């Protein structure tokens, strides 16, 4: 069972990230811009992963994802769910906004 402190922390995180997610919302962007955004995210993820010294397999294990998912995300072929962004940020030991910002 989650504690009140954990629930507050999650609510605060969602509150702080909502404006970023709204700006990065890919559902209302034309396909070519969506592809560009996904590739940019993939490059940012690869940059942070290398900076932390992780292989793609190590990041996948740390984030609780499949290796194939990490490869596809870094290649810009996956439209991410919010929960996947959170898992990747946790695996890299960065905040989600660090993962979403431009290098």
What does this entry look like structurally?
The chain is mainly α. The protein has a single domain, classed as 434 Repressor (Amino-terminal Domain), CATH 1.10.260.40. The protein has six helices and no strands. The chain has helices at 4-23, 31-52, 56-63, 67-74, 82-92, 96-100. Helix 3 crosses helix 5. The chain starts with a helix and ends with a helix. The mean pLDDT is 80.
Q: What's the layout of helices and strands?
A:
Layout: H1 4-23, H2 31-52, H3 56-63, H4 67-74, H5 82-92, H6 96-100
Helix pairs in contact: 3-4, 3-5
Overall SS class: mainly alpha
How far apart, in Å, are the first and last alpha carbons?
A: 37 Å
Shape: globular
CATH topology: 434 Repressor (Amino-terminal Domain)
Overall average residue pLDDT: 80
Low-confidence stretches: none
Beta-strand fraction estimate: under 5%
Short description:
The chain has six helices and no strands. The protein is mainly α.
Keywords:
single chain; 103 residues; mainly alpha; 434 Repressor (Amino-terminal Domain); 6 helices; 0% strand
